[in-house]
Amino acid sequence: MIPAGYMAKHVSQKPDYLKAAQVKDIYSVSPCISDNFADYIEFWKHNGYWLFDSPEFILTVARQNSIDLTLTTLFYYEVYELEFDGKNWNSYGPNSAVNVTPPARKKLEGFDVVTFFARSSPECSPLSCNSMAEEVPTNAHCLLVSFEEAERLLNSGVFNNSEPGPYRIFSVYSVDGT
């Protein structure tokens, strides 16, 4: 797994439409349910994985734009070096420079499968966005429990009819501080 970056998110409780009893909240990489702290792309402080190299970059953007981070949760992500197009695993790389400073302490929360049809920022997380957590076992944060499970599900075609790919596997860590 490759260090991909950080994001501060407004974690949402499980939406009413998601009928997955095990899910209590959404820790997905996607901003579809648990919003990012801001529409950050317009500030152009993100890295080539469309995340932030350090929490300090998030704090700087927030301060410069009067964005309140009080009710956000800081996440750190790592991404698998291959993406799945529905049939094959292919290499890909960041769109620009990446210089991530990994956190001193992090807690692994699970693994997410995320679409990248536009080949830029994270798009949909089918487990939450498409209610796949109703069919696929997830943890309380609507994440898969292992990388191997994410890879197995992708290889078996479970995600192929959810959202257009390619699909990337992310490890999702919670981190103290924003």
How would you sum up this structure in a few lines?
The chain is α+β, with helices and mostly antiparallel strands. Helix content is 13%, strand content 24%.
Core attributes:
single chain; 178 residues; alpha+beta; 4-stranded antiparallel β-sheet; two-stranded antiparallel sheet
Which helices and strands, and how do they pair?
Elements: E1 2-9, E2 12-13, E3 25-26, H1 55-64, E4 73-79, E5 82-84, E6 89-91, E7 107-115, H2 126-129, H3 147-155, E8 167-175
Antiparallel strand pairs: 1-4, 2-3, 4-8, 5-6, 7-8
Explain what this protein looks like in three dimensions.
The chain has 178 residues and is α+β, with helices and mostly antiparallel strands. The protein has one domain. Helices cover 13% and strands 24% of the residues. It contains three helices and eight strands; from the N terminus they run βββαββββααβ. The strands form three sheets. Strands 1-4-8-7 form a four-stranded antiparallel beta sheet. A two-stranded antiparallel sheet has the order 2-3. The longest helix has 10 residues, at 55-64. It is globular and about 45 Å long. It starts with a strand and ends with a strand. The model has no long low-confidence stretch (mean pLDDT 93).
